[in-house]
Amino acid sequence: MPLFTTTLLQWFRENGRELPWRQTRDPYAIWLSEIILQQTRIEQGLPYWQRFMHRWPTVADLAAATEDEVLREWQGLGYYSRARNLHTAARQITAGGGFPTTLEGIRALKGVGDYTAAAIGSFAFDLPAAVVDGNVYRVLARHYGIATPINTTEGKKVFAAMAQDLLLPALNREGKGAGIFNQAIMDFGATLCTPQSPRCPQCPVMETCAALREGKVTQLPVKQRTLKVKERRLTYIYIRYKGMTAIHRRPPGDIWQGLYEPLLTVSAPYGAILLRQNVKHVLTHRVLYADFYLWEPNERPELPDGYFWIPEQDIDQYGVPRLIEILLEQLHQ
């Protein structure tokens, strides 16, 4: 077994994180954790996982929910396509008679890529597939001094092959152990070989780390520059008329598909009060700047197509983007 693999497993036995989805082989619980933790820190995602498991303890329960219910429970996590994909995949699994047990079957689920399929497959079914996420890229790039950009086709192939080569010797005679190795390298990157201020003096493989030896810890891994971030301005009007307000559901093909928002317009009507201005909200490839107005008209205004009235007290029953949640908080202040 390579020294790196041996040392990594020893480190994990002494330092691995205790997480509730690691105490089960239930593929539903594991899959749910993996989807929630895409683009989300563990400390933020854990309460969501717990709430989902409490409300929908089985995949059939989740499949029976409405999309609105799932989006509402997801509110605050962002990247809402994950929630829609989760719901769609739950119905795929139920329609197929149960959770798939092969990498190909898991990969066919909506919203599941190579990394997530390997994670679920190895944790739930001990399939011998190496995970390659940001933590793994960082650990391998630094330890072996690899400067190939991690977000290129070549880089993905190089790191996937290397991770698989390091995993195979960790398997026991029955071919099991992939899940332990994957958890070990992920925890190593998340808690020791971190993006900023890595704990190199405490690293058990520091003597063989190329990046440390060559003074390139802060330079690795390499990521090729991608799309330019675009800016977008939004003007929202919260209408208050006799205890009612107006919202609509965002359509497909744009950000926040399926979530709800107040009146989105190009300019504020006469008499509207500015509550917040230039509220900055950062998405993956976009930066939003929002103005938020309160308008209390004397007469009931006619709404644009797609908008409808609801009692103000019921707005918490509708899933809204985090930006809208921030703006609505202003009303309570």
Q: What is the strand and helix layout of this fold?
A:
Elements: H1 3-15, H2 27-36, H3 42-55, H4 59-64, H5 67-74, H6 81-95, H7 103-107, H8 114-125, H9 134-144, H10 153-167, H11 178-191, H12 210-214, E1 230-239, E2 244-249, E3 260-261, E4 263-265, E5 273-282, E6 286-295, E7 308-311, H13 322-332
Parallel strand pairs: 1-6
Antiparallel strand pairs: 1-4, 2-3, 2-7, 5-6
Helix pairs in contact: 1-11, 2-3, 2-8, 8-11, 9-11
Structural summary, described in words:
The chain is α+β, with helices and mostly antiparallel strands and 333 residues long. It is built from 13 helices and 7 strands. The protein has helices at residues 3-15, 27-36, 42-55, 59-64, 67-74, 81-95, 103-107, 114-125, 134-144, 153-167, 178-191, 210-214, 322-332; strands spanning 230-239, 244-249, 260-261, 263-265, 273-282, 286-295, 308-311. The strands form 2 sheets. A 4-stranded mixed β-sheet has the order 4-1-6-5, covered by helices on one side. A 3-stranded antiparallel β-sheet has the order 3-2-7, with no helix packed on it. A hairpin with a 3-residue loop joins strand 5 (273-282) and strand 6. Helix 1 (3-15) packs across helix 11 and helix 9 crosses helix 11 (178-191). It is globular and about 75 Å long.
